[in-house]
Amino acid sequence: MIYHAHSTGYGFSIPPGVPIITVSRNSLGYWGQWANNGLLYHLPNEISPEFCNRHLDRPIDILIQARKSSKYLLQQLAPALQARHHVYLLDQFVEDLPGLFNQAKLYLYDSAEYWATSGVTEGFGLPPLEALACGCQVFSSLNHGLSDFLDPGFNCHKIGGYALDYDLQRIGTALVHSQPLEDLEMLLAGHRRDRLLPRLATILTEINAFFDYQDRQPRPQPTVPGLAPWRIQRLRLESTLGKIRKKLGR
Predict the structure, then answer these.
(1) Are 20 and 40 a contacting pair, CB within 8 Å?
(2) How many CA atoms are closer than 13 Å to the CA of 235, on its beta-carbon side?
(3) Using a CB cutoff of 8 Å and minimum separation of 24, what contacts does 158-165 make?
(4) What does the alpha-carbon distance between residue 148 and residue 8 come to, in Å, rounded to a whole number?
């Protein structure tokens, strides 16, 4: 068995005999803490080739996806923007999402509130990366997996910047002056199939070798200690007692 990890924070543990493949470095760091005695790998999500810049006219100023959006974005920022710009609020399924991205100049995404309310994390955050691939400028939250690839000031803008008026000012400026997207092609290349398949092959080769090792053991048991809550408490107590002994010994 292999665990393919997206969102984190569900509260369950993974046995050390089950390798974990994570889609983001944020998830990799989480399982690096809570599955410290297991095998961990990083395999980013794929961006389909259809998500690309078609270099078309962009009649939509601002595209907002209602799903997972914050109340601030939907109830404050969006109405204020609608009074000034052509805003398209996407609240239903569309057949050609890459085509819609290619019609928009800016894409707004704010999922921090949604995931905080859910109690788990944004595992990867495909929509902002897909929008970037289609030539949109992106204003986004930076929670969890989004921080893997979004870089404010270089390939995106941070949404929810201090005040509504300041967001309106920055978005208005972005519509007039496009931000150069630094190293975008290099970023996207790491999420295309031709780069991911060799990476997946390496990961599966290592996992297969691990499973072979387990099969050769008469009674395979992990010998590297984990970080179960009871062990963490014991280590904290041992650390405190060690500090006390050190002070008393002076």
Answers:
(1) yes
(2) 8
(3) 159/73, 159/77, 159/108, 159/109, 159/110, 160/70, 160/72, 160/73, 160/110, 160/112, 164/76, 164/77, 164/80
(4) 15
Q: What is the CATH number of domain 60-188?
A: 3.40.50.2000
Q: Where are the domains of the chain?
A: 3-46+193-241, 60-188
In this structure, the number of other CB atoms found within 10 A of the CB of residue 146 comes to: 27
Q: For residues 159 and 248, what is the distance between their CA atoms, to the nearest angstrom?
A: 53
Q: What is the pLDDT of residues 14-54, one digit of tens each?
A: 999 999 999 999 999 999 999 999 999 999 999 999 999 99
* Nearest to 222, CA basis, from 27, 1, 18, 3: 18
Place of tokens 């999402």: 97
The mean per-residue pLDDT over the stretch 78-102 comes to 96
Model confidence, pTM = 0.88
Q: How confident is the model at residue 208 (pLDDT cuts 50, 70, 90)?
A: very high
- What pLDDT shows up at residue 84? 95
Backbone angles phi, psi at 146, to 5 degrees: -60, -30
Nearest alpha-carbon partner for 61 in 97, 85, 96:
85
Distance CA 154, CA 157 (A): 8
The confidence score (pLDDT) of residue 250 equals 64
Nearest-angstrom CA–CA distance, 158 and 36? 32
